[in-house]
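Could someone model heme C with this protein?
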Amino acid sequence: MSEKHDQSDAQTTGHVWDDDLADLTNQPPRWWMLGLTASALFCVVYFIYYPSFPIVTLNTFTKGIGGWTAIKEMEDAQDEVEAVRGKFEAKLKGMTPAAILADSELTEYVIRSGKVLFGDNCAACHGQNGIGTHDKDGLFAPILNDDDWLFGGKIDDIHASIENGRRGIMTANKEILSAAEIDVLADAAAKGQPTSTPLFAEKGCTACHGEDGKGFQAMGSANLTDKIWRFDGSVAGIKRTITHGVNAGDPQGRVADMPSFKQAGKLSDTEMKKLAVYVYKFGGGQPDAPAAATDAKPAN
Ligand code: HEC
Ligand code: HEC
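Reply:
Sure, complex below.
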């Protein structure tokens, strides 16, 4: 310290600089000495308790009396996580997707693991977060995070889509309808008014798309009145769908094939339930409304 004060009775080390600055021999402050002693003591205790000192010649080290190792600490932490997970996983086994959905704590847990499962198994076709993927024919795999469903957005519909796969089938019409008839039907459908032409009923479109043209979820037959297009929605694109069909074996026809994950055996029952809840919770899932059981909602 180079404070300037009366040094008449202070001891100095005898060093003086600039005629004025003397090196005093005062004791360091008490708090400082206490701190020094405490940290020295801490070192000794730490040294004895934890593994600390390498014994190079024996290729080992002092193990410490506390038995601590980094691996053991990690294993303990893992055991804790497993204990929590195990509790949830055991519960999930016996539950239906609807029951899981009704339990907010389980739902939260399921959504966390569902994200990884979806990324690994579904995102390649349905896009990250279910935004859908497109090829030159339009939507390759449907958007899952909206509220338009081909096969239904109730929790059990979604679960069934995952377990059994989906493959909507529409017959090809190239040998059944004339080019002029296909033109009329395509124009009407493009306007969102498929039933505006009597051909729609006469040519049997109603068998799969319904009297009102809104489709049936049991068949995944698209709603033709909402102008939301599963495939190319231009007049030319619609003509192609009508002419060559969907999944009907026509080389120019549309292909839409969702694999059955149960058949593939790639996912466990619990994993398929988790995914159903995860997809439902994208926001487009539809609650089980008691009165609206046969309501055919728009398809995408
Ligand atoms: C190989 C591509 C592919 C993979 C992988 C795939 N899907 Fe699909 N998915 C499709 C196609 C194509 C359809 C539409 C089928 C149709 O239109 O007939 C579909 C339909 C669906 C539907 C019905 C949508 C609706 O509107 O009703 C759901 C739900 C669904 N998939 C969920 C999943 C989940 C969850 C996974 C992962 C476990 C998955 N899919 C993996 C291609 C795929
Ligand atoms: C055997 C049942 C069946 C018949 C009959 C049928 N359709 Fe379809 N149609 C479907 C199904 C199922 C889909 C949806 C396929 C999918 O997305 O997997 C579809 C899809 C379509 C689409 C595409 C919708 C979109 O979103 O891109 C059009 C357009 C269409 N049908 C028009 C017609 C017309 C017009 C007729 C009458 C000539 C007809 N369909 C007869 C089952 C049928």
